[in-house]
Amino acid sequence: MKKYLFCLVLLFGFILAAPAQNIDQLLKKVSKTENIEKVKIGKFMMSLGKAFGGVGDIPVARGIHSMEIYDLSSCDNGLKKDLAKQFNKLKDSGGYETLIYAKDKSDGVRIMVKKDKDTIKEMIILCMDEQDPTIIRFSGKIKDNDIAELVNKYDK
C-alpha cells in the first residue's frame, strides 16, 4: 500500500511540474530557432568597449563580462505566440529568480537574475512584444551595492 501511495504522489508531482517552463529551456529553444538575429559580445570586446566607451563611472558596467542579444522580430507569428505563452509560464528555477515582472495586455517585461550571495552572475531581460520580442542576457559579476549606487544616481 505504501508503494502505491508513494508512486501516486511521485506521479502527481511530475504532472504538476511538467507545464512549468524554465529560462534555460526557453533560451535553448530560441537559440535553435531560424530567422533570429543574435549578437554576442564577448569578454574581450566588452573590455575594449569599457576602455574606450567611457563607462568607468557606471559601476554596473564594470561588472558585465559578456552580453547576448536575441532579436526575434523576423520569426513567424506562430513562433512569437508560442514564445509569449512560454514567457507567461516561466517559473523561478535553475538558480534564476524573477527580479521584476510587468505585463500590459499582450506586452510584457521580465527581468531574471542568477545570484551567488550578494553578486549577480547573470541577468536576463525578456521583452515580449507581439511584433518585436527580444531577449538580452548579461553575464559577469555585478554586486548588489553597484545596482543600489546606480539607482541612487538616477533616482534624483
Report on this model:
- By secondary structure, the chain is an alpha+beta fold.
- It has one domain.
- It contains six helices and six strands.
- A six-stranded antiparallel sheet has the order 1-2-6-5-4-3.
- It is globular.
- It starts with a helix and ends with a helix.
- The relative contact order is 0.16.
Following the backbone from N to C, one meets helices and strands in this order, namely: HHEHHEHEEEEH
Residue windows where pLDDT falls under 50 for at least 5 positions: 1-20
Number of helices: 6
Give the structural class.
alpha+beta
Strand-residue fraction? Answer: 25-35%
Q: In angstroms, what is the radius of gyration?
A: 19 Å
- Quaternary structure of the protein: single chain
Q: Please bin the fraction of helical residues.
A: 40-55%
What would a concise description of this structure say?
The protein has 156 residues and is of the alpha+beta class.
Can you give keywords for this protein?
156 residues; alpha+beta
Structural topology:
Elements: H1 2-17, H2 23-31, E1 37-41, H3 43-53, H4 59-63, E2 64-71, H5 77-89, E3 96-104, E4 107-116, E5 119-128, E6 134-143, H6 144-154
